[in-house]
Amino acid sequence: MRVAVVGGSGEMGSAASYDLVRSEGVEEVVLLSRSARKENLHPKLAGSEKVSVKNVDVLDTDKLVNELKGFDVVVNCVGPFYSTGYRVVQAAIQAGVNYVDIDDDYDSVKIMLDPELDRQAKEAGITVLYSMGADPGTGNILAKLACDQMDQVDSVDFYWVLGASDCKGKAVWEHVLHMNTGMVPQFIDGELQDVPAGSEGEVVDFIEPFGPCEVHFVGHPEPLTFPDYYKDKGIKRVVNKGGMLPHWVHEAIKVQNQWGFTGTDALEVEGQKVAPREMALELWRQRPPEGDLGDYTSGVKVVVKGTCGEEEITVSYDIAGNTAPGTGIPASIGAQMIARGEVTEKGVVPPEACIDPETYLKEFVKRKAVIYESRESRRVIEKEKKSQ
Q1: Which domain holds residue 334?
Q2: Less Cβ around it within 10 Å: N or C end of the chain?
Q3: Could you say which DSSP state residue 40 is in?
């Protein structure tokens, strides 16, 4: 198979590209980047005969469409997706090429839910698989695995923690600040609601090396997409909460949000127009010297509650690891599943709509990923009341 990776020279793109390179059946991986050169790639990519680089700007739609033609699938790793994702999707549809991305921005996913986009993808005969990263992505697939085993689903809580030292590149920090800004969607009490980012904080137990960590509401896609596939099982709650490590980073971003430093409306400062978030973004990119960022990676936790027969069940999944491979590898697996015909759905779909959990997880653990599962259940016994 031939795979194009848009943004294949970045942190996430490099991880996806390297997994593709070492996968059986992948013959060619072309990295599409605005200015990358092969000799400057990660050594494992630069030294591969399967890899080549073509320079193209995602904003140049006509050129991007021409470059995508003839591939089996394109993997999009160019963030932030709220500003770039739709362009690459449109190019893939015009080129008639299957598409996978790692989109974790809720507002760009809102665009993906446009029925017209779904119609165009189906007409082109392609699969547009969005949000196929870690969270969303692997988390959705694990949640699907648990939900499919239940007669009734009450709630699905997606939790995550992210080490600031693992945030490399402008796009990652843009996403961190963006999802902590303003009102964000959550599915609560059976309906989609907008709640303040940073609200309803709680302490959640993650696996080692994290332990108890504070998390709060953030803007992520799962509450927008996941409930649609389990309404027939009575699902009432799908939320996403996240937090940064070390804890002082988490607190600093909360304060920035409260004071408006994550806002996008420009302010006039001594005659210059400055967007507060642009200033905050640049400060985080420069790694503030006043605090130790530690050596934290990232962790994902999914908690599903429901019933099966007479049992009330809680299923939890935990994963820990570095952000780039944890995000890029799922996209690579998804792309290969599409190219091999293991994903048959056409149109615009999230992971929970088209990815078979057993097939995916078999591939995922091949990459030495470790998933921890825990189950709690209690039996519900109805006692018949005897008339006196």
Answers
A1: 2-133+324-366
A2: C
A3: G
Q: Which amino acid is at 48?
A: S
pTM equals: 0.92
Q: How far apart, in whole angstroms, are the C-alpha atoms of residue 128 and residue 31?
A: 19
Nearest in space to 287 (alpha carbons), one of 188, 160, 147, 166: 166
Alpha helix ranges (H) inside the chain: 11-21, 43-46, 61-68, 81-95, 106-112, 115-124, 138-147, 170-179, 222-225, 247-258, 276-285, 323-339, 351-354, 357-366
Query: Could you tell me the CATH number of the domain that includes residue 244?
Result: 3.30.360.10
Is the Cβ–Cβ distance between 75 and 101 less than 8 Å?
yes
Is the pLDDT at 384 greater than 90? The verdict is no
**Distant-in-sequence, close-in-space partners of 90: CB < 8 Å, separation ≥ 6:** 61
Helix/strand number for the chain, H first, E second: 14, 18
Do 221 and 118 sit in the same domain of this protein?
no
Q: Indicate if 274 and 345 belong to the same structural domain.
A: no
Q: Match 């490099």 to its residue by tokens.
A: 14
Q: Which two tokens stand for residue 304?
A: 């599903």
Q: Does residue 385 register a pLDDT over 70?
A: no
Tokens of 274: 């400055």
pLDDT tens, residue by residue, 333-354: 999 999 999 999 999 999 999 9
